[in-house]
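A quick aside before the break. I want you to see a complete sequence-to-structure record at least once, exactly as it would be stored in a machine-readable document. Don't worry about memorizing anything.
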Amino acid sequence: MEHTTEDTLKVEVLKNKLLLKVEQLLLEEDEFLPFGLIQDSEGSFRLLSISDEDEEYTADKAVKSIKAHIDSQVTNVEKVHSGGFCQDFLINDGDAIQLNLISKLSEGWISVYLPYFIQEDRSLTFGSIIMGEPME
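That is the input. The structure line, written in tokens, reads:
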């Protein structure tokens, strides 16, 4: 399969949708639970989340489950183009979004951290992107 400009644009749209959802959750709740999105080849999205009402819930378990599901879908389902998930993360005692993306054409997961700050007026400001280690 050859990488095209359309593939790049789809991953860009996926990234933007994930970040918009994070921004919405942060402004409403001051935090967010791990969630993901799967994008099909036609550009439609499906939201993935795990209920935190289960007694067994942990953010790590939610991330592992969401990541495994996205991995399986991107690898095994022809119509699935890409997927990604976000989780709230601490870097140097500051809040950050861990953003993780994968597509049929990427060489594995791409992971970045985006520091954020909730201002007194409830607006969000973002710091500089920090590249993460490749995920397995």
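Two observations worth writing down. The mean pLDDT is 92. DSSP finds two helices and seven strands in the chain. We'll return to this after the break.
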